[in-house]
Amino acid sequence: MIVHGLFPTPVGCFKLDTDFTTTELDFIKNLETRPNQFNTTSQDTYLFDRPELSKIYNFCNESLQEYFQSIYSPTHDVSPYVTQSWSNYTSNGQSHHLHNHRSSFISGVLYIQAIKDTDRIYFYKSGYEQIGVKTDNFNLYNSENWWLGVETGLLLLFPSSLTHSVSVVETADTRISISFNTFLKGYIGEESTLTGLRL
Question: What is the pTM for the complete model shown?
Answer without folding.
Answer: 0.95
